[in-house]
Structure prediction request, 329 residues.
Amino acid sequence: MRLLVLSDVHFASEAERARVGHEARVIRNPILRLGALAWRNWVWLRDPCGHNHRLDAIIDRNPEPDLVIANGDFTVDSAFIGASDPAARESSWIALEQLRAAYGARFRATIGDHDLGKMSLFGGAGGPRLDSLRQCVEFLGLQTHWVHDVGQYRLLGVASSILALPVFHRELIPDELPAWEHAREQHLDEIRSALATLEAGRKLILFCHDPTALPFLRREPEVRRILDAGRMECTVIGHLHTPLILSMARRLAGIPEIHWMGVTARRYTIALREAACWKEFRVRLCPSPAGCQLLKDGGFLRADIDPAGTRPIAWERVRLPWDLEPNRG
Prediction:
C-alpha cells in the first residue's frame, strides 16, 4: 500500500494574502518586532502566504496513492484565531477541496493548532477559539479522530491541541474553558475506544500534528500498554516544519518550564520538558511543503506499507525544489 503524508500546507486565500505583515502588526515592542522579522526573513519563512503552489506540486507528483493523510494546519491563520476567522476558514476550505477532489475517499485529515487558533509568537494576539473547533468539524468536515485499518496496522489520527489543552489554558477565553474541557474528555474517550479494540499483535501508526500532545497521551493506560508492548510502529508529526527544529527539540528535551518570558515561551518549554517521551512514540516528522527559509528543505512523506507486516515500512522524505514555479495560477 502506497501512503502519502503531507502537513502544514498553510494555504493562503486572497483575503489572507492581503494581510501583509500580519505578525509584525500585533507586536508593540519595536525590539521584539525587529527580532521576529529577522527570524522570519532569515530562518523560518519570509513569505508565509506565498507557497500555495506547493500543494499543487504535491498532488501532481502523487496521482495514485492508496491513502493520503494531511496532518493538520491548512491555513496561514493570519488573524491567530483559526477557522473562526472567515479568511482563514476560506484558506482551509480551498486546500481541503483540492485534496478531496484529487483523492476522494482515500483522503484523511487531522486538525492542527493553527486550525483552532494559535496565539502569535511575540504579540500575544489571538488563541484557540471554540468556534474554530465547531467550524473545523461542521463546515470544513474535519474529524477530531479517525481510524483506518491496513492489515496488521491500525492508523489513528488525533487532534493534538485538544489533547494538550492544559498547555493552552492561558490562551483560552475563560468562559470557553468548560466547553474545551468537555471536548477534551470526549476526545480521550474516542481514543480509548479506538485503542481498546486494537487486537493483540497489531501495531499502531499514530498521526498527531503537534508532539506537545504526546506526554498527555502517554498518561493514558491504553497508550502505555501499546508502548510497553513495543506495538507503536511510529508517530507521524507535523508542526515543526523542518528537521532542523526537530533536532533542536530533541537536544533541548528536559529543560525546565520558563514562565517569565510570556505565554509562547511557557508553551514551548512545557512541550520540551517532557519531550524525552517522543522516543517511545518513535516520532517521524513530515515537513511542511516549504520547509524553512534557511535550509529550503520542504517536501512530504511517502511510505510503502506491507499490510501483512512481513516487511518493514519503507519511508521516504521527498523534497520539493525551493524555486518551484506555480503551475495553476
User: Anything to note?
Assistant: Strands lie at 2-6, 67-70, 107-109, 146-150, 153-158, 203-208, 232-237, 283-285, 299-304, 314-319. DSSP finds 13 helices and ten strands in the chain.
